[in-house]
Amino acid sequence: MRIAVVVGTRPEIIKMAPVVRACAARGVECLLLHTGQHYSFEMDGVFFQELGLPEPDVNLEVGSGTQSRQIAAVMSGLEPVLLERRPDVLLVEGDTNSVLAAALAANKAGVAVGHVEAGLRSYDRRMPEEINRILTDHLAEHLFAPTGQAGAILRREGIAAERIHVTGNTVVDELLLQRGRARRPGLHERFGVAPGGYALATVHRVENVEDDARLSGILRGLADSAAALGVPVLAALHPRTRGRMAALGLAAGDGVRVLPPLGYLDFLGLHADAALTLTDSGGLQEEACCLRVPCVTLRDNTERPESLEVGANVLAGADPERIVACALAMRAKPRDWPNPFGDGRSGERIVGLLLGA
Ligand code: UD1
Ligand code: UDP
């Protein structure tokens, strides 16, 4: 069996690492295909380095651009690779443009698609990610749903039950594997904070960053939360967000320390000891839940309702007053919720299912 594993962006590299390792452990040939949607060292190379991943067999280097250009470049770049290398299955993870494009290219080349993290729905069709995940789920032969709820969503959409497997989320595998390494001596000193004495923030979602009112509201909310909580907010900002702030002349308020995107180990080490997470990231909602760090989600909806249901997460949107109220309420919560995202063996489960299939 030859498995092609596609990665394109930061979260895909992190969440596919356990699948790549599981292939190696089972002696399965793994073709690692990088679309190049993310390419800056801090969004790409650092994760290959820190997670010990092999160099990609192919990097399409599609880079940034309009969504259609990105999708078209991935499709036309992948076609000859798939026709020449003929993998038995092509795995994609999540909901980015790289995922939809690679799934379509595989389908057109007659290669079966497996979707890791299938069945997530925000029910907000304005999000590019929502369209990407719906289409990818309906193209896929093998659907690896992270939770029972995600699996049930797929069945309700008419996908045959035998194609759906509830595996847990590979984000848990990577977090559990790297957590010990991430807590390095001197980490907090390097960032000028003490364990438990800071909040951690990220912002990058297009509906927040490309909407001036929402971006200003979130930045105000972060600064006001720092003041209300009496702790600094470390904000590791995506290049898209830093670019937009520079273009609009927006600065972070007092108490917010803007950082570049961090490597996985620094980020995980800081996250594990944070008083609170404030984020619009999908992966962070899951990681915060696993680490038992309360999460305030800077969105009006989420495709990770499990984290809301166990009490680990709350939706605050982009209104500064609501962000502060949610930050205060979440910090006061007992951190005793169960982790609904899996047991850390999802990667090996996914590869095992493919080998048995
Ligand atoms: C993409 C995904 C999003 C995912 C996120 C993970 C889509 C539609 N969006 O959003 O779902 O949550 O990745 O982080 O696929 N840039 C750099 N260096 C890079 C990559 C991007 O500077 O390595 C800058 C460029 O200015 C680029 C902008 O960030 O135009 C946006 O990049 P893009 O890949 O289009 O979308 P993301 O916001 O990263
Ligand atoms: N992450 C990181 N450094 C950072 C911010 C995030 O390593 O500065 C990791 C984080 O631990 C998580 C993943 O990146 O595993 C989330 O990616 P992102 O928020 O870009 O995408 P999303 O999950 O929203 O698609």
Structure description:
With 357 residues, the protein is α/β, with parallel strands linked by helices. The chain folds into 2 domains: 2-169 and 342-355, 3-Layer(aba) Sandwich (Rossmann fold); 185-331, 3-Layer(aba) Sandwich (Rossmann fold), CATH 3.40.50. It is built from 16 helices and 13 strands. The chain has helices at 10-25, 45-51, 67-85, 97-108, 128-139, 148-156, 170-182, 187-190, 206-209, 212-229, 239-248, 264-272, 282-291, 305-309, 320-331, 346-356, and strands at 2-7, 29-34, 58-59, 89-93, 112-116, 142-145, 164-166, 199-202, 233-236, 256-259, 276-279, 295-297, 313-315. The strands form 2 sheets. The chain has a 7-stranded parallel beta sheet with strand order 3-2-1-4-5-6-7, sandwiched between helices. Helix 3 crosses helix 4 (97-108) and helix 4 runs parallel beside helix 5 (128-139). The longest helix has 19 residues, at 67-85. The chain starts with a strand and ends with a helix. The model has no long low-confidence stretch (mean pLDDT 98). Uridine-diphosphate-N-acetylglucosamine (UD1) binds at residues 9-11, 37-40, 43-44, 64, 95-97, 128-129, 204, 238-240, 243.
Q: What is the CATH domain class of the largest domain?
A: Alpha Beta
Fourth-tier CATH superfamily name of the largest domain: Glycogen Phosphorylase B
Q: Strand percentage, roughly? A: 5-15%
Mean pLDDT: 98
What small molecules does the structure contain? uridine-diphosphate-N-acetylglucosamine, uridine-5'-diphosphate
Global Rg: 20 Å
Report helical residue fraction. Answer: 40-55%
